[in-house]
Amino acid sequence: MTYNSSVIGDITALNKFEFNNEYILNNFQKKLEEKKLEEIVRGQSVIGPHRDDISYYINGSEAKKFAFNLETIVFFLTLLRVRIFGN
Predict the structure, then answer these.
(1) Residue 14 and which of 8, 20, 24, 69 are 20 to 30 A apart at CA?
(2) Could you say which DSSP state residue 64 is in?
(3) 61 has which bridge partners?
(4) Contact (CB, 8 A) for 1 and 50
(5) DSSP states of 17-58
């Protein structure tokens, strides 16, 4: 699984010491200022957690290459269930 944040980019590429609340807040504020005009023109927000990308992999290949959106959601929910309940 990879998580690509619209605010700070690919989290898997960050040094774990850089990834803290202050780092995220500073980058989020910076991105808000950079994208302010674009958001006004488009009438919608262009950054934030609702714009983040999460990719899941099966045997090294991205799951969405093999599945429709509903199947990807079911795959995610199955992983979540296993993570929470352990079966």
Answers:
(1) 69
(2) G
(3) 58
(4) no
(5) TT-SHHHHHHHHHHHHHHHHHHHHHHTS--SSGGG-EEE-EE
Type of residue numbered 30: K
The residue ranges of every structural domain in the chain are 2-55, 62-87
Q: Which of 8, 28, 29 is nearest to 18 (CA)?
A: 8
- Contact assessment for residue 56 and residue 63, using Cβ atoms and an 8 Å cutoff: yes
Residues 62 and 56: beta-carbon distance below 8 Å: yes
How does pLDDT run across 46-76, given as a tens digit for each residue? 988 888 887 878 778 887 777 677 777 777 7
Length of the chain (residues):
87
pTM: 0.54
Please give the structure tokens belonging to residue 9.
């980019």
Tokens 């808000």 -> residue: 32
Rounded to the nearest 5 degrees, what angle is found at the Cα of 55, between the Cα atoms of 17 and 32? 60
Tokens representing 11? 């989290």
